[in-house]
Amino acid sequence: MEYIHSQEIPKTDVLNGIMELHKHVFEGAELKLVELTEKKNLLIFVAVDSNRIVGFKIGYEYNDQTFYSWLGGVHSDYRGKGIASELMHRQHEKVKALGYQKVRTISRNKRRAMLLLNIKFGFDIIETFISEKGTHKIVLEKELS
């Protein structure tokens, strides 16, 4: 398994792999390029197996002290192999090196494995809310020490 990261929108083959994997992980939902271009201090990590993108973690600056871990997922064929943990670890190490003091993310009860991984990695639940679509959301933050 190879892990790579980029602080900008990646080359076309990597970007296409992320977009296809996003559809797989998020029940057909499309990740639009414009969504990536609008993010300040974008940071993308991917897990690659034989030129296939099998995991990704995307985030951006929430404010000058906090990094927002926005999207991530691992292909169902590769789950349970520690890929999500490795991507999260690498993301946290990088954002800490970039000077951020906290990482924030939003999860859902429906995505229980991700919620549990966040808690395992030291995130605290700081609030919950109902989205405009009526979905219950859980806001988590972690202090980077």
Automatic annotation (TrEMBL):
Pfam families: Acetyltransf_7 (PF13508). It comes from the Bacteria. GO terms for molecular function: acyltransferase activity, transferring groups other than amino-acyl groups. Keywords: Transferase. Residues 1-145 form the N-acetyltransferase domain. The keyword Transferase applies. Coiled coil: none annotated. PROSITE patterns: GNAT. This is GNAT family N-acetyltransferase.
